[in-house]
Amino acid sequence: MARGRTMEQGRQDPDARWLARVMHVAFFLLLGASLARFLLRHPWEDRSPWIVALSGALASLYLLGPVLGTRATPRRIAWLSTVVAVWMVLVVLAPSFAWCAVPLFYTGLRTLPPRAALGLVGLLTVFVVAAQVKLSHGGWDPNLVIAPPAVAAIATAVFVHAERQADRQRALIDDLIRTRRELAATERREGTLAERQRLSMEIHDTLAQGLSSQQMLLQAADRTWDGDPSTARRHVRTAESIAERNLAEARRFVHDLAPADLAEGGGLEEALRGLATRESAAFRVDGTAVALPDRVQSALLRIAQGALANIREHAGATSAAITLTYLDDQVVLDVADDGRGFEPASGRPDGGVRGHGLPAMRVRAQQLGGTLTVESAPGEGTVLSAAIPLPRPLEAGE
């Protein structure tokens, strides 16, 4: 089964198909040359009709080979046996047909299991040696006995070596493809985990804490309701205010999870412009706009949302700006602010308290083959830059 799979892969290989065509052409050239040599050197004899008929039969049989495939199926083995048998009869009648053995070497090695193929090569070699000795009319020439086995050994060794090299290359390619798939799956899992961690921290620091505060305020109001109604009402109003802020936070989470701005059909620029307006930030577009894949648009919008959330929560900035730049080979999103800044080496714009937003943004960029860089220093503001490569346009003639 393994041999059959290997042979079938070889059949599909363009190099193997090319080599098969060369061998087919060589076989018919050798067969035609052998027949012409016989007819030129031996004017019409009693055996001539048989040789012409067998030559035609051998050519017709050989034409059926590609139709039967390359696997060692019963039909393929029966076909190969018939071809070899007809060739042997021709060699007995006219030894000059022995030269057709070289393409038959290749056919046998490509079709049969290793041991059977080597046996066939040995049998063909014996017939070639016998034919050469017969052509010499009894004269002793060492080359007639040594040369055919040497040629057969070289041809077999070259073929086996090429097959093993092809098997190793196929195994290496399979390993590379499997490794690439595993790496892609790992990156997706890491991105998912980073996004879950970011959302869990956001929910914990806003909704969960707000709900906890509401619970404590309502409990305090319940305890003081009969003795101090004014204090109880104040606790209820404070809890109401916290609930309003939590509702706003919940709506923001929903908005971040589903980029409705892109779904409305305005494109990335309109989505970023609307985001900048809501966050009181400036917005600018540089370069000639090009159509971006949906995944790129969604990722850049998410990154912009995350960057502005960091500015709002941690930077203490008085102004922020979003710049979308189209270059020849990439699109770049810059988000800058004049806030308090931080040490980029820590990866935490809040001074070490949280810092889950930047890893999630970096994963989004890396999943698209891009990069995320942060330039900042304490007291000097921050510039976040996400660069995503663009697909290379096809040139004329490609």
TrEMBL record:
Q: Which reaction does it catalyse?
A: ATP + protein L-histidine = ADP + protein N-phospho-L-histidine
Which organism is the protein's source? Streptomyces showdoensis
Q: Which residues cross the membrane?
A: 21-39, 51-70, 77-106, 112-131, 143-162
Keyword terms: 4Fe-4S, Cytoplasm, Iron, Iron-sulfur, Kinase, Membrane, Metal-binding, Transferase, Transmembrane, Transmembrane helix, Two-component regulatory system
Q: What does this protein do?
A: Member of the two-component regulatory system NreB/NreC involved in the control of dissimilatory nitrate/nitrite reduction in response to oxygen. NreB functions as a direct oxygen sensor histidine kinase which is autophosphorylated, in the absence of oxygen, probably at the conserved histidine residue, and transfers its phosphate group probably to a conserved aspartate residue of NreC. NreB/NreC activates the expression of the nitrate (narGHJI) and nitrite (nir) reductase operons, as well as the putative nitrate transporter gene narT.
Q: Which cofactors are named for this entry?
A: [4Fe-4S] cluster
Coiled-coil annotated residue ranges, if any? none
InterPro entries per UniProt: HATPase_C_sf, HATPase_dom, His_kinase_dom, Sensor_HK_TwoCompSys, Sig_transdc_His_kin-like_C, Sig_transdc_His_kin_sub3_dim/P, Sig_transdc_His_kinase_ChrS
Where in or outside the cell it occurs: the entry states: Cytoplasm
* This protein's GO CC annotations: cytoplasm; membrane
* Protein name listed in UniProt: Oxygen sensor histidine kinase NreB
Tell me the GO molecular function terms.
Answer: 4 iron, 4 sulfur cluster binding; metal ion binding; phosphorelay sensor kinase activity; protein dimerization activity
Q: Does the keyword Iron-sulfur apply?
A: yes
Q: What is its EC number?
A: 2.7.13.3
Q: Mostly located where?
A: cytoplasm
Q: Which domain of life is it from?
A: Bacteria
Q: Offer one Pfam family short name for this entry.
A: HisKA_3
- Report the residue ranges that make up the Histidine kinase domain in this protein: 300-392
